Amino acid sequence: MRINPLIVFGFIGLLSIALASKSHAQKTQEAEPPPEKGWRVDLGGAVLAYPLYPGSKIERVLPIPSIEAHYGDRFFASVREGVGYNLFRWNGFEVGPVANFAFPRYESDKRAALRGLGNVDLTVEAGGFVRYNFGRYATAKVEARQGVNGHQGLVLDNSLDLNAPPLLNNRLFLSAGPRFSCYDHSYAQAFFGITPSQSAQSGYAPFHPNDGVKASTGIAAVYLITDRVTWTAFGEFSRLSGDIANSPIIRGPFGSRNQYIVGSALTYRFNFGN
């Protein structure tokens, strides 16, 4: 059975809350953690229930890999954050370049709902981020990425992670945070629009959205089984709005503005060159 890459994309978005809480958990084990050095690699797996494609009310449950790597406090690479570098750090601020992927949508994912709509190719998105750390318990980030192929759209992600004080002898950590994503015309048209030719093949009415918005709220619980082994449970609710909310893909019998994600992950941390 082929794993839909869009499921992985959803996993990326949701674990931004869960793994942010995990990072906070491991840092708060010491009163004043020393500067981070060398490689930190987290490997593991997760089970995820997620919409079959953006705007779908049909969900699928799948096992998903979890991979994350950091070098010191500068370089990062993961399925959730893409590849980036903290180029500038000052007084709580971090600024740098980032590159990520928007995974494709296949017409064959759900023939009844997507027949005649064609595929949306895998897209490389390049841009930058600004992050501000409010001490140990809150982090805000703004990230803008432009698709250089595929959907060729602009994506603006805004996030706030709020971390509760640690529980159970610094082993259990709770995190919650809102997400607010904005999409321009090119992105909205690629995933939610209907061209005249697609209309003729699919039966949907032509539709040309100018923009799109996704507002989300997520929670995560992180438990440190050992200093290297971490168990995470997470959940997220999202609401699609803006022009894309009127898309025939969403308003049809297989679509929904409400999107739900729940899952659990188990990871192991490796350290190199410390």
Give the distance, in angstroms, between the N- and C-terminal Cα atoms. 40 Å
Uncertain regions spanning at least 5 consecutive residues: 1-21, 28-32
Helical content band: 10-25%
User: What shape does the CA trace take?
Assistant: globular
How would you state the average pLDDT, rounded? 86
Structural class: alpha+beta
How does this structure look, described?
The protein has helices at 5-27, 111-114, 185-192, 196-202, 248-251, and strands at residues 39-51, 59-71, 75-78, 82-85, 88-90, 93-102, 123-133, 138-147, 154-163, 172-183, 212-224, 229-241, 258-272. With 274 residues, it is α+β, with helices and mostly antiparallel strands. The chain has a single domain, classed as Porin. It has a twelve-stranded antiparallel barrel. The longest helix is centred in the N-terminal third of the chain and has 23 residues, at 5-27. Mean pLDDT is 86; it is low at 1-21 and 28-32.
Features:
disordered N terminus, 13 strands, Porin, 274 residues, 5 helices, 12-stranded antiparallel beta barrel, single chain, 48% strand, alpha+beta
